[in-house]
Amino acid sequence: MTTVDLSEFRTPGRGRGILDVFRWHYLLRLLVRKGTQTRYRNSALGWGWSYVKPAAQFGVYYVVMGIILELHRNIPLFAVYLFSGIVMVNFFNESFSNATKSITDNRALVKKIYLPRELFPIAAVIGAFIHFLPQAAILLVVCLLMGWTPSLIGLAAIVVAIVIVAVTALGLGMFFGALNVAYRDAQNFVEIIQVFSTWSVPVLYTWHMVADKAPEWLFNIYMVNPLAAAVELFHRGMWRPVAERAIATDGGELFAGPANLWLNAGIGLAIAVVFLLAGQAVFRRFERRFAQDL
């Protein structure tokens, strides 16, 4: 009796999860290219919206928080502080939202052919990162004009901050993206989380304000929130060097950074990895019915 070698075959519809991305990297590039090319199709401003939206958001927050509530008096270079936080929160919100909708937005592909479903949320996060780059470029130019000089610890803080946000958004995006296929009201929970992500991190205020009002145990929980840790790391890399330079030139006092910043960042990264593992587990549990539910 002739035997057939099946070692090179895989069970249909079952893969190795995120690890399959390395094997199917060419498809990932195609999905990312598709997302970037069609993002502003038939739009007059095109990629100009990458600048207009954060600029409008920054203008509103600066007037309300900086001028009306006078936070600009207590925070040196408040505009840089505010914008550096905004670009990180926008990166998270866009990555999270796009990853959540990635399966339903690509229902035609999901229903017709098999490919690792994880490619869709990962491509969504990468697309959001590409959209994040023009905003970060504006911030970098402003900081350079103010005398920003890179340092090893500052660059490390920026990179770790981006990694924390990307991993957190991917994990939550896979979790809610899988639920969104079967239960479309999952998108409503995502929108609620996005509201909290904007107001529950030190962007429109400082961590000192939270420390002054919250019990110590609650403040410690607040600081290991992955998004809060990432924002403070990004402030450490972008805002603090130019703020220190301004203080040295003009005089005044710069408030200290949060204690145990790198420890909190490490815990935040660990929490982000837990989100990713949980998101992957739920995603693999639901992906068997994606085609039917779509």
From TrEMBL:
Please state where this protein is localized.
Cell inner membrane; Cell membrane
Major place of localization? Answer: membrane
* GO annotation, cellular component aspect: plasma membrane
| Gene Ontology biological process terms, A to Z | lipopolysaccharide transport
Q: Which domain of life is it from?
A: Bacteria
Please give the PROSITE patterns that the UniProt record associates with this protein.
ABC_TM2
Lineage of this protein's species? Answer: Bacteria, Bacillati, Actinomycetota, Actinomycetes, Micrococcales
Protein name in the entry: Transport permease protein
Name the source organism.
Mycetocola reblochoni
- Membrane topology field: Multi-pass membrane protein
